[in-house]
Amino acid sequence: MDTRTGLPVVGMIGGGQLARMTHQAAIALGQSLRVLANDVDESAALVAADVQLGSHTDLDALRTFAKSCDVVTFDHEHVPGEHIRALVAAGHKVFPGADALQYAQDKHLMRRRLSELGAPVPRWAPISSAAELVAFGLPAVVKTARGGYDGRGVFVVNDVEEIIDLLASGAELIVEEKVELRRELAVQVARSPYGQVAVYPVVETVQQDGICVEVLAPAPDLAEDVALGAQELAIRIANELGVVGLLAVELFETPDGLVVNELAMRPHNSGHWTIEGARTSQFEQHLRAVLDYPMGDTALAAPAVVMANVLGGPDGGMSIDERLHHLMAAEPGVKVHLYGKQTRPGRKIGHVTALGDDLADCRARAARAGHWLTYGKALEA
Amino acid sequence: MDTRTGLPVVGMIGGGQLARMTHQAAIALGQSLRVLANDVDESAALVAADVQLGSHTDLDALRTFAKSCDVVTFDHEHVPGEHIRALVAAGHKVFPGADALQYAQDKHLMRRRLSELGAPVPRWAPISSAAELVAFGLPAVVKTARGGYDGRGVFVVNDVEEIIDLLASGAELIVEEKVELRRELAVQVARSPYGQVAVYPVVETVQQDGICVEVLAPAPDLAEDVALGAQELAIRIANELGVVGLLAVELFETPDGLVVNELAMRPHNSGHWTIEGARTSQFEQHLRAVLDYPMGDTALAAPAVVMANVLGGPDGGMSIDERLHHLMAAEPGVKVHLYGKQTRPGRKIGHVTALGDDLADCRARAARAGHWLTYGKALEA
Question: Which of A52, A3, A6 minimizes the C-alpha distance to A29?
């Protein structure tokens, strides 16, 4: 507890944009997020009052960090499970726990566990040789079990020759059928240690090159029973895996129904729309969950909400500050979130959110705003 | 400019809750608010990464502070005008400027200027003796020209004897007629150096003992022409006084129409509802204004928005953290803002906001939530 305020201290391991936005939510709750960052220039370290520098793989740094926190949680999924267990053994609260987090860290474990639970997943198999891959059938999707994100570690394979080096690398791999994809959906659910859950409306996520570029909330033209089924599936996974905090369940919509693609156990890009678009943001909800506070209302704050990611674009001779001026002049109602990051082509440097009564209008406004920030020029009609 | 982000640095003098909430808004815009605070335990100093300790009356501290900012602005109105002029003379941007801010610092100057402009004000006069007060007529409202806030420095006087000590103190005083008050209203308007203005819907403010306890947005049962007139008045005052940043115009509704009560040139308690209740919060709008960014949309985010202040209450044997649990369980849709302050009876320690379709429902929810935080028990029906 912070003796100055009488309120708990949540520590977040990792200083990226998720910690940055969680700090904003913590401020409203009377708190100040404590952040373990690698560098003073990281997104969250630029804005938080209470930053410890250190690596998420350094157990000594983690121990020091945890001692000054009431609860420890994560900006990313890269903290080794044995370190989490060591912190818990020392009496610290860490959410989500290692037993849950392993399923977000390891795709092989995740697929096996979801199959055991009878949750819908693509046909899959572990593979360790070209022969096993051929036996599974091509084309298919090969994934490294560990370490992938934003499309890295995921390979659409038509011919074994394409991944011969990967097969020889010794990396643990799984293969999945290439499903007939109608679109991608996602569901956020929060779960407290007590077991209270709160689930958000199902959203549609639009991907480009494996990176989420746009989120539509609620997912348009989704049958009510399918939406309800997706929410129930997310709740069941959170319960069965013992998740505490936010769980994002990424789904493929196929002609045969929904299948689970990925799990993330933290606030997630597919939930950034909740900052203005839901009564309770995913960042506040994550704090409530790890603190065992009662969950907040997940209702939509507007009939249509669209989030568009802002990626680093070509230089184009216009500074980010000038781009922001143009965006604000063109779209006075669009909400901007910049992460304080140096621009690099393809890097997520922020997002924008448009709210309103009409989905098509919100998409157009978010696209125009995102285009200004990414390219420094107007989107051609 | 912050060379790490390519975005401007706004410095705010004063480390209270207004700076705290402005920091939240700055984070979204890719910035980090720089704060000049008296103490490490002040509301904003607890949460901001970039804090300089120093007094707002110490010109050397102000000079050091201003050197590291692109623009300097204020959490309160207590910085001496000559210090502001000295910073501007040294080449710093300071908004609002001393010429505008004097009207928020000195009620005598404000009343004289508004009278010159033909703006509606209560009948008033400067007084320096009991005889002048009697000549003005009693009962009346006597105010110290400088230094008052939250009802301090304001005296409803029925008999000269009641303020005989004040009259003898040498404090500069004005007297105003005790208007027949139907209710109090307020309007927020933001103005940029370029002169762009953005005005928010008119709200009703409910006061107790001179402290704002509740704000209803939009003001219920207000004729459209009266609302429009109030917005036009606020815009005219902002323009005539050369305000840059937020201006809050507090109004009395009387049988003869609206009259101006007070002016504040900063984000203001009567605008806290905008955080969730308007597309652009007053804190973001203030940053946009002082940076000469295009203004944001001021539209309501819900048909009805109610803010209730949370004051420090009796101890009652329940910690603020326990009170927060009860509030969250009882009112999952109410938004909480705690300022990280030690509880003292009557001190503003936070606020809550309820949004929805029905004003009466929002008032009831906000009242229940505020009651839990203030008293640590349920509001009796």
Answer: A6
Give the residue from A319, A321, A353, A362 with the most B CB atoms within 10 Å of its CB, the best one to mutate.
Answer: A321
Kindly give the interhelix angle for A320-330 and A359-375, rounded to the nearest 10 degrees.
160
Instruction: Answer whether A28 touches B (CB < 8 Å).
Output: yes
Inform me whether the pLDDT recorded for A315 exceeds 80: no
- Does position A149 have pLDDT exceeding 70, yes or no? no
Residues B39 and B55: their CA atoms lie apart, in Å, by 9
Q: Distance (Å, rounded) from C-alpha A151 to C-alpha A126?
A: 19
Determine whether the annotation assigns residue B262 to a binding site.
yes
Give the tens place of pLDDT for each residue, B221-270.
Answer: 999 999 999 999 999 999 999 999 999 999 999 999 999 999 999 999 99
Domains of chain B, each with CATH number or no CATH: 10-94 (3.40.50.20), 123-177 (3.30.1490.20), 183-375 (3.30.470.20)
Contact B335 A302 (CB under 8 A): no
Partners of A1 on chain B (C-beta within 8 Å) are 321
Q: Which residue of B has its CA nearest to A25?
A: B24
Angstrom distance (rounded) from CA B88 to CA B101: 14
Radius of gyration of chain B (CA): 21
Give the pLDDT band (50/70/90) at residue A151.
low
B77 is in an annotated binding site: no
What pLDDT is recorded for position B268? 97
**CB–CB contact A28 B28 (8 Å):** no
Which of A121, A260, A284 lies closest to A200 in space, CA to CA? A284
Q: Residue B83: what pLDDT?
A: 98
CA distance B93 to B88: 6
Name the H helices within chain A. 17-28, 59-67, 81-89, 98-105, 107-116, 130-136, 164-168, 224-241, 274-277, 282-290, 320-330, 359-375
A339 exposure class (CB count in 10 Å sphere: 0-12, 13-18, 19+): buried
Among the partner-chain residues A299, A319, A336, the one whose CB lies closest to the CB of B29 is A336
| pLDDT band with cut points at 50, 70 and 90 for residue A317 | confident
A47, A323, A355: best to mutate for the B interface, most B CBs within 10 A: A47
Q: What is the mean pLDDT of chain A?
A: 95
